[in-house]
């Protein structure tokens, strides 16, 4: 159904030099139980710029792709971001426009956060078996998704080789 919730994800943005990458796993995937740990995602590295509007910072992430992987066993870890792209690639999405991320600054006693939204078209999918059933992202998400996300403003300690790490959560609806 168009406009229906299809997933909840949690992940992290990793900064390495001038590039960013986001990876994570699915907390919920419509019609597929239980997805926790078996379904992961990883974006291709991308660049971002910031537009300031007074105290409001708007991050502009340029178009890019991300893929969804089905793992034989859970085991991806945020200490090893590349572990989220291990497994069988079962779907790839291309963002249809920029991703606008708005930073709401911390003000006492409230805590700041980042909020973003993007749409992505499904560009490829491969049927897969899980839990004794057959699925295909072309049926799960139709033509694509629109995802809303919230991220922390305070970075976590990054693993070796990375400059910064920020955790996030997102939810997506199908758009066609």
Structural notes for this entry:
By secondary structure, this protein is an all-beta fold. The protein is 3% helix and 56% strand. The chain is built from one helix and 13 strands. The strands form two sheets. An eight-stranded antiparallel β-barrel has the order 1-2-3-6-7-9-12-13. β1 (5-16) and β2 (19-29) form a beta hairpin. 29% of the residues are buried. The model has no long low-confidence stretch (mean pLDDT 89).
Summarize, please.
The protein is mainly beta and 176 residues long. It has 1 helix and 13 strands, in the order E-E-E-E-E-E-E-E-E-E-E-H-E-E.
Q: Please state the oligomeric state of the protein chains shown.
A: single chain
How helix-rich are the residues, as a percent range? under 10%
Strand content: over 45%
Mean pLDDT: 89
Characterize the largest beta sheet: strand count, sense, and whether it forms a barrel.
8 strands, antiparallel, barrel
